[in-house]
Every structure is written in structure tokens, then in C-alpha cells.
Amino acid sequence: MKILVTGGAGFIGSNFVHYLRQNYLDYQITVVDKLNQQGNIANLDSVINDISFHKFDLIEEDKLEPIFKSGIDYVVHFAAETNVDRSIEDPDNFVNSNVLATNILLRLSRDNGVKRFHHVSTDEVFGSLELESTDKFNETTPYDPRSPYSATKAGSDHLARSYFHTYGLDVTISNCSNNYGPYQVPENIVPVFALMAMQDKSLTIYGDGLSVRDYLYVLDHCRAIDLILHKGVAGETYCVGGGEEQNGVQIADKILEILGKQPSLKKFVTDRPGHDRRYAIDYSKLSRELGYQPSVTFEEGLKQTIQWYKDNETWWKPYMEKLYVPKFMQGEEN
Predict the structure, then answer these.
(1) Which residues contact 57 (CB under 8 A, 6 or more apart)?
(2) Does the pLDDT at position 334 exceed 50?
(3) What is the mean pLDDT of residues 264-280?
(4) SS3 of residue 38 by DSSP
(5) Active-site residue, from 74, 149, 180, 238
(6) Is the pLDDT confidence value at 156 over 90?
(7) CA–CA distance, 93 with 57 (Å, rounded to integer)
(8) Which carries the bigger pLDDT value, residue 326 or residue 226?
(9) For the chain, first and last CA: distance in Å?
């Protein structure tokens, strides 16, 4: 079985490549990644001799086409620009990476007999829930993207779905909640808070810190994609969650407690423009139909993640030397 993993040197993608190598030794794995700020070839060091790796941008169709011509059975499409703050500053880049590149992949999959195209997406396409609500996003929730990032992911979801309905391409889609775990670069709350606390630096909390997200340990996400890829129904969408709703203050407090640091490291700053208040995922369809169940609690996952960062200082140090600061936060007092 030949499988193409796009964005396979990124956070979730590299974890999935490791997962495949551990569970499907007979699979021939091809990875394409342009190695932007999210991708790092070091993420694949332990498996690099067992896979075929290609560095280029997915919109370079002339480089992508020969890979499809060689015979690809499955495509798992992780590659995307994902940072909300960066999308606010440079939406054009997100249109190219998230919409145009997805269309190229879908067309090449259609034209070259790909057996299944799995499109990995986000719960952010659904918009925002009321903070006090008990509602959750599910597969029938209307789309209501609030940022250029989520709008481009919504567009790519619709493109993938259209290739199933129009051309009969075997497509499945998953919309996941916030992932965390090994290999996540410090542009997201868990690695930023963990690494700042490890260095006795301030943990920057947007607004009142009460915005809620559902958190999903990355290996649970990999297991979910495995189920969808091999057992999911063509044309169907599956929501993937961890069942762990946490706000920014709670995450900061948990990380500080694990590391034995003082609460005074918390620092509240100006909120992000258009900051959604709450995301929550109902993953009951995936559980009922495919047997999915998250296995790692948030506290367990945090401890494992923090230990990974402690053990891999040479991996994260270069990122901290060029830590990204959104424009709306520039000028905040240290």
C-alpha cells in the first residue's frame, strides 16, 4: 500500500508518520512538506531512511504529479497554514496553501486512481459557541468561519466534498479540536506556556483568559485518522475531539503546577481580534460508527508533553530564539 502524507514533517503529520511506521510496516510512505515555520525535517529523523521525503510547495504541480504517477493508494492531507494570527496578517498565503494546493491534490488524486483521499480539517470552520453554552459542534453544524485561517480551511473542506459528489473521488473529512503533544512548535498555547514556564518567563494570556477550547492529544488524533482512513464511509465527515474543555487560565495553572512554578508568571494582554470564545466537539458519530475513544486525559497528556520538551531542548531552542509575536501584541510591556 502506497500512502502520501502531505505536511508530514509538521506537528500532527510527523506524529502520524511515526504512527504509520509503528503500525503498518508494509506501507510505503511518501512525505511532501515545504518545511515552513511549522515543518521540521528533524521530526522525521528516526524514520527518514524508511520513507520517501520530498521538499517542495504543494502548489508546484510539476513536482507533485510524478509522485501520483508512480501510484498512490491513499492520500492523507495535513499540509496547511494553521496559525490564526499569521492568517490575519497575511491571508493571501493561506489561500494559496489551504485552498489552491488542496484543489491540485484533489485533481491529481482524481486523475490517478487514488483509492481514498482523507482531508484533515479543524473545528474552527464552525465558528464560535457561547461561553456559557453546553452546545457542541458536530457533523451537521453550519460553517461560520471567523478568521482567514478558518475561512480557507472551510473552503478546502467544501472542495474536498465537491470532488466526492462531482467526480466520485473517495473522500473522507475530519474536523478536529485543538491538538497538543510532541513536535508542536511554540506558536500554540501548550508549547508556548510550557517552554516559557520552563525558562521562568511570563505566560502571555489573551484577554480574560476564559476562552475555551477542546484539547486532543495528538496520538489520539492519529488513532482517529487511522480508523477513518481504513473504516470510514466515503463522502462522510467525522468530528474528532478529546472531550477535554480547558480555558487559557486553567492551562496556565496546570502547566505551572506540573513544573512547580509560581502563578505570578501569568500575564494578561490585549485579546486577539475576533477571538472565538468557545469550541467544543461532539465526537459521538466517530465513536458510535468506528469505535473511537480518546485514551489520554488532558493532565496525562500535559505531563507527557512537558517531559518531551524537557528531553528535547535542542529541538525547541531554535524556535524560542525567533519566537513569533503577533502584530496586535507588539508594543505590549514586558
Answers:
(1) 34, 97, 101
(2) no
(3) 84
(4) coil
(5) 149
(6) yes
(7) 12
(8) 226
(9) 52
Provide the grid cell at 45. Answer: 529523523
| pTM for the whole structure | 0.94
Residue 102 φ/ψ region, left for φ over 0, alpha for ψ in the -120 to 50 degree band, beta for the rest: alpha
Nearest to 30 by CA among 75, 81, 63, 79: 75
Residue 252 near residue 227, CB atoms below 8 Å: no
Average pLDDT over residues 306-314: 98
Read out DSSP for 131-156? TT----B-TTPPP---SHHHHHHHHH
Contact of 54 with 31, CB cutoff 8 Å: yes
Scan for cell 492531507, then name that residue.
77
Dihedral sign from CA coordinates of 167, 171, 177, 182: negative
Dihedral sign (CA 261, 272, 145, 86): negative
Tell me the per-residue pLDDT of 78-121, one tens digit each, with 9 for 90 and over: 999 887 888 888 999 999 999 999 999 999 999 999 999 999 99
Beta bridge partners of 173: 119, 237
Residue 123 falls in the annotated catalytic set: yes
Residue 124 annotated to the active site: yes
Q: Pull the grid cell for residue 101.
A: 494546493
> Smallest Cα–Cα separation from 276: which of 215, 193, 212?
212
Q: What's the CA gap between 296 and 313, in Å, rounded? A: 24
Q: What is the mean pLDDT of residues 47-51?
A: 98
Domain 2-179+216-240 fold is: Rossmann fold (3.40.50)
The residue with greater pLDDT, 76 or 90, is: 76
**Gyration radius (Cα) of the chain, Å:** 19
Q: Please tell me the distance from the alpha carbon of residue 312 to that of residue 182, in angstroms, as a whole number.
A: 10
> At residue 59, what are phi and psi to the nearest 5 degrees?
-80, -5
CB 2 within 8 A of CB 68: no
Closest CA to 122 of 3, 212, 241: 241
Which of the following is catalytic: 33, 85, 123, 282? Answer: 123
CA distance 307 to 300: 11
- Does 330 score more than 50 pLDDT? no
